[in-house]
Design brief:
cytoplasm; 2 domains; Metal_Hydrolase; globular; HutI; alpha/beta; 395 residues; Urease, subunit C, domain 1; hydrolase; binds fe (iii) ion; TIM Barrel; binds N-(iminomethyl)-L-glutamic acid; seven-stranded mixed beta sheet
Length: 395
């Protein structure tokens, strides 16, 4: 790290500090510290505790009696795309149901875009997310569906995040619509060869209209053999084999989890596969909410993310997702804030983000509010007053 470069900074006068480190605070897994301070040294957290005990540093920032929490970890987004789907959204809000078929509209627009256009769209959304407190994001390919278009999406993504996911298996490419087996061969062969060097993860949309359980298993197994770790779009629109496959393959995350049997919930609860809930998708498709309460009561680990994409969830706002999860999915404000920070980190199998503790990256969000509860209590209000990313003030 380059700690000498940035020097050390203390943020004092924090009314509520969410550390997500139970050993530092009291009460919930949030590890809350009142009247707190945080010392940042270079790109890492060096110290946390009560303001009165903070060590001397080069610089001092007064939080003004407001709340500080870990930067949000958005562990599920689809930001390599061009165009939008306003008309599809409009039609849906007049009663047309959502289906996987709309993905093809974005595939056509994405293939037609230049690299510069794709990257500009990505960075515009990243800036938008950062202003809303997101300091780590995962993002996926999946709107190219040719070897060249998928691999260029991943190359562009890798310039902006280390959490890059190969989703060649989003839907069957339109030119192979009559021969899905040939498309699975392409994804597990030439396309995987070209994409594996640029990605950390492999994902499949396991759903009616996309890929069935056997196809998903073949694709994820091929990815694993190339060093990619699985995560799955599972049980979003219907019941299906996705969640159980995720647990069977030790996927880091099963994402959506809207339609679950008791066996699915039980499998998640007895695994280290995180259930990543994406309420922006249910909001924007007028679908029934995933039951976070049921998963939490069973003992599953829950993450909350945006699913930001032009079809089913065109929001980059984690605070919006927190508010929905509290209002409509049975989560407490503490659980939702944990899920959007430490939960996202767990879904990416990361220990160095999602918490404010010595050694973790200094990724911090300052709210214009005295506590994290305001994220759900004051929905739709732009509460993010400051963001540090890797120790650097970014907002
Ligand atoms: O997570 N479910 C599959 N993929 C996206 C939707 C993509 C789209 O409609 O463009 C999702 O909801
Ligand atoms: Fe998604």
């Amino acid at each position: 790290t380059d700690s000498a470069h940035h020097g050390s900074t203390v943020i004092t006068n924090i009314a509520t500090l969410v550390t997500n480190d139970p050993s530092l605070g009291t009460g919930t897994p949030l590890g809350l510290v009142r009247d707190a301070a945080v010392v940042i040294d270079g790109d890492r957290v060096a110290w946390t505790g009560e303001s009165s005990k903070a060590p001397a540093t080069d610089k001092r920032v007064d939080a003004g009696g407001r709340a500080v929490l870990p930067g949000f970890v958005d562990s599920h987004s689809h930001l390599l795309f061009a165009g939008d789907r306003t008309e599809e959204f409009n039609a849906r809000m007049s009663g047309r149901p959502y289906s996987a078929g709309g993905i093809r509209t974005t595939v056509a627009a994405t293939r037609a875009a230049t690299d510069a256009e794709l990257e500009a769209n990505l960075t515009r959304h990243l800036r938008e997310a950062l202003r809303q407190g997101t300091t780590t994001f995962e993002t996926k390919s999946g709107y190219g569906l040719t070897t060249a278009d998928e691999s260029r999406a991943l190359r562009i993504a890798a310039r902006h995040t280390e959490e890059v996911t190969f989703l060649g298996a989003h839907v069957v490419a339109p030119e192979l619509a009559d021969d899905p087996a040939a498309y699975v061969d392409l994804v597990t062969g030439e396309m995987l060869d070209a994409c594996a060097p640029h990605a950390r993860w492999i994902d499949v949309f396991c759903e009616q209209g996309a890929f069935d359980g056997d196809q998903a298993r073949a694709i994820l197994t091929a990815g694993k053999a190339r060093g990619l770790h699985p995560r799955i779009h599972a049980n979003q629109l219907t019941h299906g084999p996705g969640v159980r496959l995720a647990v069977e393959l030790d996927a880091a995350s099963a994402d959506h989890c809207t339609h679950l049997t008791d066996a699915d919930v039980d499998a998640l609860a007895h695994s280290r596969t995180v259930a990543t809930l994406l309420p922006g998708a249910e909001f924007s498709t007028r679908a029934e909410w995933p039951d976070a309460r049921r998963l939490l009561d069973a003992g599953a680990t829950v993450a909350l993310s945006t699913d930001c994409n032009p079809g089913s969830s065109f929001t980059s706002s984690v605070p919006f997702c927190i508010a929905l999860a509290v209002r409509d999915m049975g989560m407490t404000p503490d659980e939702a804030v944990w899920a959007a920070t430490a939960g996202g980190a767990a879904a990416l199998r990361r220990e160095d983000i999602g918490r404010i503790a010595p050694g973790a990256y200094a990724d911090l969000t300052l709210l214009d509010a005295p506590s994290h509860v305001h994220l759900a209590y004051r929905p739709g209000v732009p509460l993010v007053a400051g963001v540090w990313r890797r120790g650097v003030r970014a907002v």
